[in-house]
Amino acid sequence: MHTEFFRERAQPGMFIIGSDSHTCSSGAVGCLSIGLGAADVTMGLITGEIWFKVPEVINIEFIGKPRRGIGGKDVILYVLQQLRRNTVASDRVVEYTGPGLEYLSPDARFAIANMTTEFGGITGIFAPDHVTKTFIEGRKVARHKNASRYFHSDDTRAVYAESHVIDLSKVESFVAKYPNPDDVVPVTDLSVLDMKLDGCFIGACTTAEEDIIMGALVLEQGMKNGLRPAKDGKKRKVVPGSRPIIDMLRTSGLAAVYEDSGFEVGIPGCSYCVGMSADRAGKDEVWLSSQNRNFENRMGQGSIGNLASAATVAASSFNMAVTNPQSLIDQIPPERWEALKGRGSLSAAPLRSEPDWVEPASSTFSRPDIVAQVAEPATSGELVKDSTGVDEVTGGGPRKIVGKLAPAQFLITSRTNEVLGSHCLEFTHPGFRDRAKEGRNQPSLGLLGITMADNPAFFAAAQDGVDMEIDLDADTIWVGSGGDGKGREAFTFRLSGMEKELTELGGITPAFLKFGKQLFDVLCGSGQAVAKATKRTHALPVRASGAESGAAAGGGSTLQW
Q1: Which SUPFAM superfamilies match (predicted)?
Q2: Which of 244, 305, 389, 534 has the greatest number of beta carbons closer than 10 A?
């Protein structure tokens, strides 16, 4: 799903959606590849359209040169260590640039883009270059390389929410300790070095072909040095992300290396990375894995998973204790590594033909088929069909949400609202957790999200225990008590018309059940619905049809594809 799609399908400049959070892996080749929920992807399949609010972008500039044997897994673990998850990348696109890209292979970029979702980003996208071009042109099927469009950022006008520099020369072998992907320490740290293990796993999508090869070469070198897997009955398994990779392991003899080193070679797939089928870690078992997530119960109910590179897992598998792989990596003959490299690795003598850069369409459109319709805001109420089949807006009561400020912490590990409430504001307002039992907080996943601008007055007013009322019609949050309106402060926010309509309808699925394939025409006020809306007192909200930017839509950034 991810491995071969990146290797043989995704092309620079494409826009890709998929129903999995690791769809972002394909950003390794310079395309915008985003994971969505099943309903959103289904809407794209059915209607041929999908809408996005354009997110902010952060820039991570790679500099320096990594030491031999350091791949994408250790690089992204270092990024997580330095910048932490769900901070600078949260709800943003992460763009990877810089002179250090010269030393990052397509497979290394894949691992980094893959775990951008663990970083908290919507997706990761690598600036395409000669490395990308060589990789894409190595494909055998013409249609999977001829649609490439090579874009790059404008050095003088590109706007980033934040920019950070990561020095690849500082990257070493790391371990991300259970249960947080950003609790990252060097493998030599005393908190993990020599930690006893019940299982070692190499594989799943984030472990690219070159990582699987490096893991085998570490095992091979260890065997040459006289190391042998302990006869301890503990579990060692390697599961590549696709069948072509396992075929490569068989034909190259590396599968036999894994088997001689005590590893079972499994059928390509997710395996222990999701812990849902036959491959499950047992309760209280401690594992070292090259997968992408080490969340609670990820590898199996009650299991304890720690993350590392394939090389680190391989070196640790002999004595089933966390081990630094660097000495074994340093002993691998360069010619042996060079002979086994796949297309996703850097060649010793890389081709340096730069792509043919193209300019994207202008942000100001003059195409006659791209139009924007500005209409009056809709009143609250229900959309119904009139006699012509066009949707009308009926009257309705005010839409308001009343509650108290209660951010949802521990969202990943909390399975119920009660568990979530027991952690609410645990670090800043411990006394609030008792009041959480009153139902004042709930998970934010799948619910309406409102982003407040950096407004010191709002944050000063919205304190623990203060009443809040959200008026969705007036785009206003009232903070404070007082039924007569006195003693309350008003703060405005911005929600797009589409967000409001989807909230009113209960989500994308109910919207489709109500309007069928025309739901985007209705929600966005395009086509016949636009013409009708301009004649009504209660018109549909501001909308932009086509790839129109936010100026005509009241400042929003919404794209239709």
Answers
A1: Aconitase iron-sulfur domain (SSF53732)
A2: 305
- Cα separation of 542 and 533, whole Å? 10
Q: What is the pLDDT of residue 556?
A: 33
Contact assessment for residue 225 and residue 322, using Cβ atoms and an 8 Å cutoff: no
Distance between CA atoms of 148 and 325, rounded to whole angstroms? Answer: 38
Q: Specify the residue for token string 């990252």.
A: 184
Main-chain phi, psi angles of 235, to 5 degrees: -95, 130
Q: Token digits for 75? A: 């690089």
Number of domains in the chain: 4
Whose CA is closest to 219, among 138, 333, 313, 82? 313
3-state secondary structure 422-446: HHCCCCCCCCHHHHHCCCCCCCCCC
Say yes or no to pLDDT of 443 above 80.
Answer: no
Where b means 16+ CB within 10 Å and e means fewer, 387-399 reads eeebbbbeeeeee
Same domain for 281 and 428: no
Cα gap 328→336, rounded to integer Å: 13
Question: By 3-state DSSP, what share of the chain in percent is helix, strand and coil, each rounded to 5?
Answer: 30, 15, 50
- In the predicted model, what is the mean pLDDT of residues 366-386? 34
Q: Which of 117, 150, 171 is the last residue of a domain?
A: 171
Question: Which of the listed residues 325, 340, 355 is the one where a domain comes to its end?
Answer: 340
Q: List pLDDT tens digits, range 178-222.
A: 999 999 999 999 999 999 999 999 999 999 999 999 999 999 999
Dihedral-angle region of residue 509 (phi above 0 means left; psi in -120 to 50 means alpha; beta otherwise): alpha
Same domain, 76 and 114: yes
With 0-12 / 13-18 / 19 or more C-beta atoms within 10 angstroms meaning exposed / middle / buried, residue 213 is: buried
DSSP for 310-345 reads HHHHHHHHTTTB----HHHHHHS-HHHHHHH--TTS
Residues 507 and 486 placed together within one structural domain of the fold: no
The pLDDT of residue 224 is: 98
The verdict on residue 149 lying in a domain is yes
Residues 97 and 228 in one domain: no
* 251 and 211 within one domain: yes
Query: Do residue 267 and residue 315 come from a single domain?
Result: yes
Q: Is residue 23 part of a domain?
A: yes
Provide the residue type at 38 as one letter: A
Range of the domain at 121: 3-171
Give me the pLDDT at residue 427, please.
60
Strand ranges (DSSP E) for 208-272? 235-239, 264-265
Residue 405 has pLDDT above 50, yes or no: no
Q: Say yes or no: 509 and 377 in one domain.
A: yes
The average pLDDT across 464-472 equals 82
Euclidean distance between CA atoms 176 and 186, whole angstroms:
9
- The CATH code of the domain that includes 64 is 3.30.499.10
Which residue pairs, CB below 8 angstroms and at least 24 apart, start in 155-163?
A: 158/59, 159/57, 160/56, 160/57, 160/58, 160/59, 160/95, 161/56, 161/57, 161/58, 161/88, 161/92, 162/58, 162/59, 162/88, 163/58, 163/59, 163/60, 163/61
Q: Is 543 inside any structural domain? A: yes
Whether 352 is covered by a domain: the verdict is no
